[in-house]
Amino acid sequence: MDKQSATCHICGRQAFFYSSYLGKHLCGKHFEKMLVRRVRSVVTTEIGQRKAFRKVMDGSAAFRFIDFVFRSGESDTTLFNNVLEDFAIAVLGYFVFDEKPKIAVKSASGVSPLFTTSEKEIENFLKLKKLCGGSVKRRKRDAYVLNMLYELEGRRPGGMLSLVKIGRRLGII
Questions:
Q1: Of 79, 81, 86, which is closest to residue 110 (Cα–Cα)?
Q2: Which of 129, 124, 72, 80 lies closest to 105 in space, CA to CA?
Q3: Contacts of 7 by beta carbon, 8 Å cutoff, 6+ apart
Q4: Nearest to 110 by CA among 41, 45, 37, 47
Q5: Residues paired with residue 4 on neighbouring β-strands, in sequence order
Q6: Sheet with 110-111, edge to edge strand ranges
Q7: Cα 10 to chain center, whole Å?
Q8: Which domains, from first to last, does the chain contain?
């Protein structure tokens, strides 16, 4: 479908984002609503309803997104900035390189609410809101693994998310 003529699957307005694993075009309003709801749902599921959190201020795009969605304040819970790609690399590294992951969805000190959110989604959200965020720097091997994961994602939309969910069920992350 031509990007110019694509319309939102929900309301029929001009599409802003195409979610390959949902197979749907979304306008800016519905894209934002879907993304914010998904991330808040992760936090509620993992630690319950809270109003404020500590955040890891690293200037990344993920931090800018978390900062937009959640309030800062006095809290014993930290929201980490790891995204779907970070967790997919960790799970694949566990299986391929026998490397113990250094990140987890939930730990004693906090939670990573973006484990189901891709860098592409965050970048598009920041464009929508006219915010800027930093770029991600990865080790050479991680960049190589990520390229493999992007190829998988191209052939099977949702492949990275499936890999992360498997890693989660097996207690890897």
A1: 79
A2: 80
A3: 13, 14, 15, 25, 27
A4: 47
A5: none
A6: 71-72, 52-55, 78-79, 110-111
A7: 22
A8: 50-169 (3.40.50.620)
Contact 115, 83 (CB under 8 A): yes
Question: Residue 66 and residue 35: Cα distance in Å, rounded?
Answer: 11
Q: Residues 86-107: what's their mean pLDDT?
A: 93
Both structure tokens of 132: 């800027």
On the question of pLDDT at 3 being above 70, the answer is: no
Instruction: Determine the residue type at 109.
Output: S
pLDDT of residue 1: 43
- The predicted-structure confidence for 50-79, as pLDDT tens digits, reads as follows 778 999 888 889 999 999 999 888 888 899
Nearest alpha carbon to residue 117 among 105, 107, 128 = 105
Confidence of residue 4 (pLDDT cuts 50, 70, 90): low
Nearest to 27 by CA among 11, 38, 12, 16: 16
The dihedrals phi and psi of 110, each to the nearest 5 degrees, come to 175, -165
Alpha-carbon distance of 6 to 17, in angstroms, equals 9
For residue 123, the one-letter residue type is E
Distance in angstroms (rounded) separating the CA atoms of residues 120 and 20: 11
The one-character DSSP state at 132 is -
